[in-house]
Amino acid sequence: MGQQQSKDELLYQQVSYGNTEGIKALCRDGARLEWMDREGKTPLIVACMNPDLHNVAKTLIELGANVNAYRPGRHAGTPLHHAAKRGLENTVKLLLLYGVNALVMNDDCQSPLDVARAKGHGNVVRAIESHICLFSGWMREFYGPGFLEVLVPQLLARKVWVVVLPCGTRNHTKPFKLELAIYPSVQDAQPRTVVALWKANLEEPKSHQSDPSVIIVENTTKTRIKLAPANEGDKQQLLWFCNACKGIPQAHPAFMQHNNETPVVPATAPPATEDLEIAMAINASIQSAIQERPPFHDAHLSSEASTSNTKSSSMNTSSHSHLGTPKAPVLLTGASEQPGHAISTSAPLITDGIVEDGPIHYPSIDSSPIDISSPTADVYLLELVIRKEKKKVLQHA
């Protein structure tokens, strides 16, 4: 065990030396890539803290290092947090290219984007935003008193850089929340205005307007923001912006590209005779249970469920556009997830918060008696399973 640890530590040391060939040789010799020092830094985190170790970081990632390795404590987080803090634009783009989760928050409740904004690294801010945003571009912002806005709107409009993007989160099983960030220019790292879109209302443009605009009202602070396309009459850009505020991207950003389909693995050998017999016995047992089961008389439950669905659908209908969280949750790929592999569960996930959509409806319990007078198929199934297990034991003996 001690020899294995020394190999891992030696690989960690080669990172600081920038010795990519030594790292590859140690990895071939069995050294692990996730060894941590006393401060919780992995080799990849160390490489992402130094602008001269970009090639080392790329080598580690290509060898299989975890791009989402998490370092606990203050001013820590993932490799992306450390690269963003130091303004290492090329390293940030490398991590984004290899699928790092850009929405993870560190122990200071900051996402990598928050860290880059706080440190004033505008290039890193643009790199992360362009990777995760649903919309970004120049728009016109109207400001000043309302009556002047009507009289001389062209004098009270200014060009601003607008971005619609998801917020950092700790719970990636919940629907993401969107925010609107408005920058004075594309060079600025800190936004002048940030609006939580799940707490805002959107007044969509009127079709008859020659130069349409959209108004966003933040419900808590009553902040009112009026935006128009960068070019007068560009209704297409305004449509893209409105859709993004509702959670509909123009093109799927990287954080939404997650394939939930379970891959079909072809069989490498024909099924054994015992497996076919077991399958036939299971089918016979199921058919027997279906035939012997008494009819289900609680038909009123289905009508109650239908009524409940009708009520909930009618309650969701609104005359205005309220920008809440998108209804479909987006699962973010983490360190241990492989694209295309979905985890099948037998029960729904347990959420942290309290259900706010209404009362909790528990499923009814079938208390009807079970007839076990003819267990012939089940006994036959049990005998087949026991026979198969005995054969396995004899083969391994």
UniProtKB/TrEMBL annotation:
Region: Disordered, residue numbers: 299-333
SUPFAM superfamilies reported in the protein's UniProt record: Ankyrin repeat
Domain of life, source organism: Eukaryota
Keywords linked to the UniProt accession: ANK repeat, Repeat
Gene3D superfamilies the record matches: Ankyrin repeat-containing domain
SMART domains recorded: ANK
Ranges for the ANK repeats: 39-72, 75-107
Spans through the membrane: none
Compositionally biased residues, Low complexity: 302-321
PANTHER family per UniProt: E3 UBIQUITIN-PROTEIN LIGASE XBAT35, ROLLING PEBBLES, ISOFORM B
Protein name in the entry: E3 ubiquitin-protein ligase XBAT35
UniProt organism field: Rhamnella rubrinervis
